[in-house]
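Supplementary Data S3. Sequence and structure tokens for construct A.
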Amino acid sequence: MSLPRVLCTVNVPREHLAPLDEIADLIISDHTPAAMPRAEVLEKIGDCTAVISQGELQVDSALLAAAPKLEFVANAAMGYDNLDLAALTAREIKATNTPAAFVESTADLTLGLLLNVTRRISEGDRFIRTGEWAETGMQALRWESGLAASKIVGIIGYGKIAKAVEKRATAFGMTVLHTRTQPDGHVNYRDFDTLLAESDIVIALVPHSPSTDRLMNAERFAKMKPGAFFINVARGKVMDEAALVEALTSGHLGGTGLDVFEEEPVVNSALFTMENVIMTPHVGGATLEERANGRLEAAENVARFLRGEELISPLN
């Protein structure tokens, strides 16, 4: 009897899929570093029972039409906005994600973006690399910036990543506020508008949904302190990118650190020339350790499905 076929769209070490040893016939992408191109996925998924992706694969009606035998989709990612859950449920295809796998990695990157943009680290690096420092000499007053311990950080959302960011920011002496859908009685809880008004640095850490779509828009940016900073490591569509550009161009915001964008991988080109903008290519969870753990959890979800066992993190 042949084993069920499982497609993995990223070229990962075989040990990251160890839970599927001897119970599945694995088809692993041979593309590096990019994931398997969608056209190739559509060619190979036709006889697959399950697919594992890093969250980059758009599982929509077109893909489902090419996958008549598909029964399970596993995201090795926290987010799942790449999955059409309604279409999956209609086809009775189960889906899972890995909601806790990338907490520490994402929190680390958040602090990195925060410190980089507020202390102008990348700007200083460019100043040296272009030879400007050698030409102009020391410009001590040019590089003065605020002390981390003097800052009030406001986090939109208060889930696992937000709490991990809070722990790190507190260690730097920052005061950390948070807001969420429902008041929680915490001494540092603020309603949304108050958080925007009080914070020197606002960090978006909420999933994208109809209620958070363009949550940070022109009106919300205007409510932030003059000179405040905005950090987004959540999802690009949580912010209105054009409104952010306008708030930076006008000088109302002091800078921004972004790991996510509205239409990835396309980025508003106005951001490219701004010295007070730090950008990374959606790499919040990209540490060796947590990527391995996330893939193992995704593979374990598939293995449990194939054995008819309870799933770790079902989405539908």
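Construct B, processed identically:
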Amino acid sequence: MNKTTLVVMAAGMGSRYGGIKQLEHVGPAGEIIMDYSIHDAVRAGFDKVVFIIRKDIEEAFRETIGDSISRFVETEYVFQSLDDLPEGFSVPDGRSKPWGTAQAVLCCKDVVDTPFLVINADDYYGVEGFKVAHEYLANEPAKGAYCMVGFELGNTLSENGTVTRGVCQVSEDGFLTDVVENFGLIRKGDVVINDAENEYALDTPVSMNMWGFTTDIFTELQERFVGFLKESGTELKSEYLLPTEVGKMIVEGKVTVKVLSSSDQWFGVTYREDKPTVVERFEKLKEAGVYTDPIFADLEDRG
């Protein structure tokens, strides 16, 4: 079986949340959401963790999570920055926003040499997603044979404001045919609407940036980044987004994406007001025996 890598995207400041939400304590013993994701990934069989962060939060990040994680699994860091651009391009005056999730993944090209799973640092995905993703990636997928763990839209919303989700179309045989980033999603009764007033059913499959790739993705993302910068690089808030680029690759027939299902409930801290609910849910998971106290107690023998 293949070795596998977990890539954690943790470079964002979380502007809507109002701080470095990736480092917020939400568990009964002060755990952060990443503690749970990495615990679940290591228990599922992932061999290595790569954190994508900003250089200015490296010290706080290592102290909060990295140093403890390295006792159980190989750990590396890469840094996403605005000026990490292909030759011939420069950061436009006035831009402060990162280039997006596709550029974040591209930052890993020199440290990831196995099939890998990408996740957001501030999302709780549940145990099942890591299990099904590891099983797929560890069984030697062919070049360009990607996967995605899909969630039901209604299970990925915030009670405190709108969210952005990649809305997916899935073929009868379980492959992703398209994914379109939707903004301003919020529940209205028995449906979800976006900022254009389009309606979606609660069980609509969406991407939560839980993607499985083979390493050929790096070549594709590098080439597409050049095209993105030529078209949108002067816009101060344009983003090079992973779901959008994967969707284009599917439409072009370059890759396939198997949609893997997880019955677990997603939750996260999109807004500061989300935190009390997240804290309550982690307490219930501990009481139900899903997690040990402290969180890594059942991984001690890996140290």
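The two ends are 22 Å apart (CA to CA). The helical segments are 33-44, 58-69, 101-106, 127-138, 217-232, 242-251, 275-287.
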